[in-house]
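Input record (one chain):
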Amino acid sequence: MTLKEQYKDKPPIAYVCLCNWGGLEILDVLYGIEDYLVTCFNYGDGRIKISRNKIYYTVSGRDYIRKCGRRFYLDEMETFF
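The corresponding structure, as predicted from the sequence alone:
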């Protein structure tokens, strides 16, 4: 089963607004030796670029992911809890 099929109807747990139309959604956290986030872009037309992104840490301890050549810091994301 592909990531697109697996996370087709799953609600996001967090998001980052990138423009008026939508942004980056966090769909799941995959725990292991190295932790990953399952992310995608959603601009109202459905989810695109669903992928796993490794969680990195800065020297000061801030956690972030890299997607499409840009850093997205996890402490700047809005959660749905």
